[in-house]
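[Meeting: bench + compute handoff]

Bench side (C.D.) handed over the final construct sequence. Compute side (W.E.) agreed to return the predicted structure before the next meeting so the bench team could plan truncations. Sequence as handed over:
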Amino acid sequence: MKDFKEFLLRGNLVDMAVGIVIGLAFAAVVTALVADLVTPLIAAIGGKPDFSTLSFTINKSHFLYGAVINALITFVVIAAVIFFLVVKPVNALMERRKTEPPVGATTRECPHCLSQIPVAARRCAFCTQEVAAAT
């Protein structure tokens, strides 16, 4: 019983459980956004976006390819909404809030032959021309 209690109270297990719960709540928000706002907007522009009635029959087997088309459209729309309304804004916010200093370059371009040389080099290893000290 003690080992089970330790397993349940480990930090990474609790963090993972919280992440899954938050992820499920976020998925519900994105699904509602797509179903209630984006899909009606697409329907207003391009007509009714429901292909579930499309099907064909071969040897008494009924194939509902419209459901597959609906699933593909839903996937693409959800992926686009997540990318443009979540990923891009969060990346832009993280870029603005970045606190670490930029990593310095270790090479520079030789002005004579345009090859990459170390920043501290005084002579190009490729064309053997003298180069000015890096600033």
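W.E. noted at the follow-up: The longest strand covers residues 56-58. C.D. will use this when planning the next construct.
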